[in-house]
Amino acid sequence: SLAFLPDGRMLVTERPGRLRLVTPDGAVSAPLAGVPPVFAQGQGGLLDVALDPDYAVNGWVYLSFAEDRGSGTNATTVMRAKLAGAALEDAQIIFRQQPAVESPAHFGGRLVFGRDGRLFITLGERAGRQFIERAQSLDDHFGKIIRIERNGGIPADNPFVGRADARPEIWSYGHRNPQGAALH
Q1: Which one in 17, 111, 120, 156 has a CA-CA gap of 20 to 30 Å to 80?
Q2: Which residues, in sequence order, are bridge partners of residue 73?
Q3: How far is Cα 56 from Cα 37, in angstroms, rounded to an integer?
Q4: Which are the contacts of 178, defined by CB distance < 8 A and separation ≥ 6?
Q5: What's the per-residue H, E or C state across 106-153?
Q6: What average pLDDT does range 54-58 have in this prediction?
């Protein structure tokens, strides 16, 4: 994935867990420091990068990645951090897909900001036969589009807020593995 900085450089993700700066003339930096460890197996790795809609003011960069959660499990995670020279600093995890499972596939992980500044995150249904029907369930994150505030909070106007049988961060459900997302 890539995100264009205001000065014309690009932040570019590489699946094994490297984030690089590329200048308009094509010069590629060494990997930036401060990128979290990623689960880079199967379809996992460093997934998307996006700039905060107010990046010029607040400097937040958002990354999605497949995270090793221990005991053989993994899931999609989203963090934000600030670009400082050749490093990311002040990293904050703002979302973790639940539950983590043993699967090397269908992480989703696209990041798109809505016009209201809220963050949409695509999440795959994790590919295993035992997981795919859970895309229709509202009590986990398999096969969902999540909508959160930039700091990880839950918007009060999400469609399932207040329902005891649903996770309030869910925006839509029933997806297989959305690996592309754009706002029209």
Answers
A1: 156
A2: 70
A3: 27
A4: 108, 110, 122, 123, 124, 145
A5: CCCCCEEECCCCCEEEECCCCCCHHHHHHHHCCCCCCCEEEEECCCCC
A6: 97
Q: Which amino acid is at 42?
A: G
pLDDT of residue 160 exceeding 90? yes
- Tell me, yes or no, if 106 is annotated catalytic: yes
First-to-last alpha carbon distance for the chain, in angstroms, is: 19
Rounded Cα–Cα distance for residues 67 and 97 (Å): 10
Of the candidates 11, 22, 84, the one whose C-alpha atom is nearest the C-alpha of residue 46 is 11
Beta carbons of 134 and 125 less than 8 angstroms apart? yes
What is the reported pLDDT for 155?
98
pTM above 0.90, yes or no: yes
As a whole number, mean pLDDT of residues 152-179 equals 97
Closest C-alpha among 88, 184, 176, 76 to residue 136: 176
CA distance 101 to 72: 8
